Amino acid sequence: MITKEDVEHIGWLARIEINEQETVEYMEKLNSVLEYFGQIDELQTEDVTPTYHVAEIYNVFREDMVEECLPQETVLANTENKQDGAFRVPKIG
Amino acid sequence: MAYENPDGIRIGLEIHVQLNKLKTKMFCGCSTDYHNAAPNTHTCPVCLGLPGTLPVLNKKAVEAAIKVGLALEGEIAEETQFHRKNYFYPDLPKGFQITQYDFPIVSKGKVVIEGEDGEHVVGITRAHMEEDPGKLVHIGSIEKSKGVLIDYNRSGMSLIETVTEPDMRSPKEARRFLDKFRNILEYLDVFDGNLEGAMRVDANVSVHWGTRVEIKNISSHKGVERALLYEIMRQKNVIRRGGKIVLETRHFDEGRGVTTSMRTKEEAEDYRYFREPDLMPMRVTDWIPAIKDTLPELPDAKRTRFMEQYGITDMHARSLTSKIMLADFYEGVCAKGVDPKTAATWAADVFLGELNYRDLAISSYDGRTIGFIHAKDPEIENSFKVPDMVELVTLFAEGKVSDRAAVEVIRTILDGTEEKTPSQIIEEKGLFKAEDDLVTKAVAETIAENAAAVQDYLGGAEKSLNFLVGQVMKKTKGTADAKTARELIVKELKG
Amino acid sequence: MAKWMSVAQVKEKIKESSAEEVTASYLEVIGKSKINGYVTVSDKALEQAKKIDEEGHRGPLAGVPIAIKDNISVVGLPNSCGSKILEGYVPPFNAHVIEKLLAAGAVVLGKTNMDEFAMGSSTETSHFGPTANPWDLERVPGGSSGGSAAVVAAGEAPFALGSDTGGSVRCPAAFCGVVGFKPTYGAVSRYGVVAYANSLEQVGPLANNVEDTAVLMDVIGGYDRRDSTSIDSKTEYQKALVDDVKGLKIGVPQEFFGEGIHPDVEKAVWDAIHKCESLGATWEEVSMPNIKYALASYYIIAMSEASSNLARFDGTRYGFRENAENWHAMVSKTRAEGFGAEVKRRILLGTYALSAGYHDKYYLKALKVRTLVKQDFDKALSKVDLLMAPTMPNPAFKIGEKIEDPLTLYLSDVNTCPINLAGVPSISVPCGFTDGLPIGLQIMGKPFDESTVLRAAYTFEQNTDYHTKRPPEVA
Question: Rounded to an integer, what distance in angstroms lies between the CA atom of residue C42 and that of residue B365?
């Protein structure tokens, strides 16, 4: 069961601001989904290897060859928050 | 005698090294040559983390990691893969860093250093590949920042993070480890340590075998030594006053030479590592034999060979092999038929000493010319040619110039702006060795003019002899051979 | 000009008139749309068509218009993923599939509506409002590629591209009565497609018929060096279009006909299986006991991957930004405002499933269940050539009907998401109607055996007329 504190903690980890009222709502909705997820506990899986990927491919590489970069104005075209060729954000902490 | 480590000091290091000798970044084709470029000019959709982009691994980065692993005498993993380390920071354009977690490419290596009590083995826990974040510039100071500017040119550069065992027992050993480690990487030609941000170190240290404290992101070897010296003193004092060392992360203030506690985060970080689904695992054991074949002669092997082949001392061999380019330069000089021992004295003692005095770092060697840049100002550059060193060593060996004059020639070349050969400089400055009778005359004059010093010397004050030699040198404008002058004075006074 | 045309007919029309005229006629239909299928109509489409006319119709799709789901990057067109957080973001690069399409001469009509970040089965969670189902404007078109399916069904594009993470191409295809195809994982490059769950999703076509699906696959399929999971299968899709199923063995997994299935759906799918039998195929029931755990496994994996994929939307470099005094607060506020409720729920659940103490219980366990589901497919497909089942257990539901309860909505993916866990190819083709709403037949095959899947779908289509029916409300 997810507690109110859990919701606050994962909200912080995921950087999504959640107010008091939302915390309670999330708690209810997330718990109902987690309860459903709990059904997989029935399965014995100690000896089962996890499948991260269906494609069993190994060793995919590129050669060390230089390709063209984007022009600076294109890089910055999607934001208004820029200064001296850099992205600008508020102070961090 | 074994070193007893009276304060129970344990130091471990985590070293981030940029594979800046690769042509492109780790997961995209952007050039790594961004060091003097305007912000955000060496980026593409991949290293900017634009939605929909996918990483594709640079094969050469993996080869470099294997090279490093082999040089550190480590084990190369049979199967290795990448993970995502999830956290939020403005320099991280995807909100996660692609790194390695429980399957690093290299584990269980070692580096032998010159320790407090002779050879000392530092264990390498692991070395793994990861991508570099972008670079942040704080407007104003970090503490009173008004905002942050982000440049993603560095984003996606290939890094190798090497983690050592806490095997170093003093800041000096830590520094020696770093020097040796950097030297090995430069031998492997995967890394240019002169570039800004090429090597960043986190150091953890504990005293009296106690709780360890981590010092983050120190950018120079000297800085690591200073930070550790300060931190050990601080910890010993905390304990002396009856306090307790707490597990924490500290920041080293290079300017003030002190470590300060970094603000503890409100919530503990939880990186939620999971396998990077956009990259496939690697099986590279097959590559190892071929890569082994390409490994160059490493510093320890070269040192031993130099001692055997050139008959030079361990100390000279150590100095000369401390930089691959210096070692190559030395061999270039020896190849011209000069006496290797004399050449070693000049290259290791004088030449290297003069470089260090000037804060010049060796940055290139092309078989004929060794180049340097100023450690703090890359704009200042200079070079020295093999034929010039050969000529100088020959002139000295033939007794045509004094040692002092030869030093003067090296200094002139290092400080000079025009290209001149040693003989030109000797000619211009009148540095040819003085004739014997000129020296004899100067000795006689000196003895006559400095009765007090002569009495002191005869009374047993050896220092006075140095003074008298100095006077002779002055009279001959440095062209006398100091050793000859000294012998002449002693002969004159003591018979 | 006829409103619904096959790609062959469109090409014929272009020959008779011009690419420009054909594009103009589609733009005219789009202009009168009642379904809100397009998020962005391209202002460059006519210009592009004109250029193709001038250059003399080179390429297999010269001048043929196409609609693109709004999570596939096209240079110069906003790529919103149905989200406020990508407000104003225009990608400076083309997705691999777009490069292929442009090289083939296709004309991009615009970007189609979708569930926000492809998280949904109804296209209701879009920041741009819901898209209506052309067969009943009060019903959902399915999702998440609801816009793409709806515009094809409504004759607003001859065909379209969608993406399928847990059924997002096949579900709307079934609900809108069109063909929707999810290729084998790795068959189509994901480069330039905004990731929801990387290890599960593929780009797939939505079209009026199986032939057009194969035409599109021949253009977009194949190896891409920019996608490390891309595989060169060398499949020639149009060559698979053979009207013959003689000797094919069909497996019918009972687990796909579970509790709550609409009786008309069940009947229509069995009718389809019997139709194939009458055409020379054989069928047998197969057992896939772990299918009932697929949904939970799928959602845990998808949400976990999503929680990481969507971390880049922080207001720093592009898109919507909420101001705050420091960066961390700015990010938290931006994401709180910029993401919709369902996306936030999935990010939070995914974050939880990967967090310290829960990683093994949820994420690792789900990956193990995935192994069991995949083994069910391997085992079943070792005995038969194909599997047939309903795409969706029920026809399209009413807009707003399931939006309040996430779990109910998740349950509608029960028959589609196991396919993504196993990575196999699967197609949905129209196979009947209930109360005027289309029903989809799902045909699944072995990895990279797209040819057999397409052959069966093509044969079924050639011998039935469901795919020729058009929604009366938009006619």
Answer: 57
Q: How many CB atoms lie within 10 A of CB C320?
A: 19
Distance from CA of A62 to the nearest CA of C (A): 8
pLDDT tens, residue by residue, C395-446: 999 999 988 888 889 999 999 999 999 999 999 999 999 999 999 999 999 9
Contacting residues of C for B51, CB less than 8 Å apart:
73, 79, 81, 86, 89, 91, 194-195, 312-313
> Which pair of structure tokens corresponds to residue A80?
């208004």
**Contact yes or no for B272 and C307 at CB 8 A:** yes
Q: Are B121 and B217 part of one and the same domain?
A: yes
Residue C296 lies in a domain: no
- Residue B356 is part of which domain span? 297-429
In 3D space, the residue among B157, C120, C339 whose CA is nearest the CA of residue A11 turns out to be C339
pLDDT in the model for residue C462: 98
Q: Do B43 and B153 lie in a common domain?
A: yes
C33: domain range?
7-242+453-474
Which of C161, C226, C367 would you mutate first to test chain B, the one with the most B CBs within 10 A? C226
Domain residue ranges in chain A: 4-77
Has residue B441 been placed in a domain?
A: yes
> In angstroms, rounded to a whole number, what is the distance separating the alpha carbons of residues C403 and C406?
7
- Say if the Cβ atoms of A50 and C364 lie within 8 Å: yes
Q: Which of residues 368-397 of B touch A (CB under 8 A)?
A: none
What residues in C contact B53, CB-CB < 8 Å? 93, 191-192
Is B29 in CB contact (< 8 Å) with chain A? yes
In a domain, B268, yes or no: yes
Q: Is B270 on the interface with A (CB under 8 A)?
A: yes
B272/C359 CB distance under 8 A: yes
Q: Is B278 on the interface with A (CB under 8 A)?
A: no
Q: What is the pLDDT of residues A26-79, one digit of tens each?
A: 999 999 999 999 999 999 999 999 999 998 899 999 999 999 999 999 999 999
Residue where one domain finishes, among candidates B389, B407, B429 = B429
User: Could you say which residues from 81 to 110 on chain B have a Cβ atom under 8 Å away from some Cβ of chain A?
Assistant: 88-90
Is the ipTM higher than 0.90? The answer is yes
Question: Is residue C166 included in any domain, yes or no?
Answer: yes
Distances (CA, A) of B485 to B62, B370, B435, B462: 61, 35, 12, 15
Kindly state whether residue B1 falls inside one of the protein's structural domains.
no
Residue C146's domain is classified under what CATH number?
A: 3.90.1300.10
Question: Does residue C208 form part of some domain?
Answer: yes
